[in-house]
Amino acid sequence: INAEYMGHFLSVYFFSSAPRSTMGQGQEVPSGWDIDLFGCCEEPKICIVSCCCPICQVAYQKAAVEGKSCSVMDACLISCCPLCCMVSIRGALREKNSIDGSMMGDCCALCCFGVCAVTQQQRQLILKGVKPDGCCMD
What's the DSSP call for residue 67? Predict the structure, then answer.
């Protein structure tokens, strides 16, 4: 299996970006992420912060998804069990934005492409008008 095929497979089946559509009574039909998982380098500043301090970045994302200010406790919680917290936050972000996916897909994205996944989450929040606090995020 070559790398290009594997990237296409993962992109289509786990992390696809797809246009949003609506059902009859104004309900959103779940669809893909608005930001591509492998487009993390399109916003270098966000990508660098996600690479250098993912715990801080995810703590800010957790606070943004929950609609509160970020605290030291958020970072401490994520530091204690990073993968569980990151999967939970990614799932909450998917649910809040009616994005197709699964816990297994979230886990694969974070384990295999952690920086890209955290960057994708940050960019998705910004696109939806929820601007998480964070260093260099002005």
Answer: T
* Residue 71: pLDDT band with limits 50, 70, 90: confident
Which residue type sits at 128? K
Residue 136 near residue 49 (C-beta atoms within 8 A): yes
- Cα of first residue to Cα of last residue in the chain, in angstroms, is 41
Averaged confidence pLDDT in the chain: 80
CA pair distance 66, 41, nearest whole angstrom: 27
Can you tell me which residue has the tokens 């960057």?
119
Q: What angle do CA 8, 11, 15 make, to 5 degrees?
A: 175
How far is the CA of 130 from the CAs of 7, 14, 63, 88, 97, in angstroms? Answer: 29, 24, 10, 18, 11
Tens digits of residue pLDDT in 5-51: 555 555 544 554 444 444 445 555 557 899 899 988 899 999 999 99
CA angle 112, 63, 117 (to 5 degrees): 15
Name, in order, each residue with C-beta under 8 angstroms of 97's C-beta and a sequence gap of 6 or more.
Answer: 34, 124, 128
SS3 99: strand
What is the Cα Rg of the chain in Å? Answer: 15
